[in-house]
Design goal:
The chain has 133 residues and is an alpha/beta fold. The chain has a single domain, classed as Nucleotidyltransferase, domain 5 (2-Layer Sandwich). The protein is built from four helices and five strands; from the N terminus they run βββαβαβαα. The chain has a five-stranded mixed sheet with strand order 3-2-1-4-5, with helices on both faces. The protein starts with a strand and ends with a helix.
Length: 133
């Protein structure tokens, strides 16, 4: 099954894919000019890779998690995914963990690499939870 994950942010959307339920690869982040452009870019990516399941990072706790969850779910609704199953996965500390994992590997600029590494972590958590069930 081809699975993708996204880490939705206000400026960038991190993207990762897994084509074999084992190896997760970060992809180029989507730079977000506005939500409609970002939704088109994500949908195009999902169609190009023939993704069957989309794992979306969602904050499950924290002071601003309710507002951010609402924004993320609204963004996902813009994707109009008819044949792709959407799963929400807790993203707690995924961005922080991505920065820690990549410290010294590349310069932490605003090019989206850390955001896509956060998407990798979100997908790892999903696959780990799925395998435990």
């Amino acid at each position: 099954m081809k699975i993708a994950s996204i880490d939705v942010g206000l400026k960038r959307i991190g993207v990762a894919i897994c084509l074999d339920n084992k190896i997760i690869l970060p992809q180029n982040a989507i730079l977000r000019k506005n939500r409609n452009q970002a939704a088109r870019d994500i949908k195009l990516f999902l169609n190009e890779w023939e993704i069957e399941k989309l794992v979306v990072g969602l904050p499950f706790d924290g002071s601003s998690s309710e507002e951010m969850s609402r924004r993320i779910k609204h963004f996902v609704s813009l994707l109009e995914l008819d044949n792709i199953e959407v799963i929400y996965q807790d993203e707690q500390n995924s961005s922080f963990e991505a920065k820690e994992r990549t410290f010294g590997v590349f310069k932490h600029s605003k090019d989206g690499r850390v955001d896509s590494m956060a998407a990798v972590i979100i997908l790892e958590r999903y696959l780990e939870n799925k395998n435990l069930a």
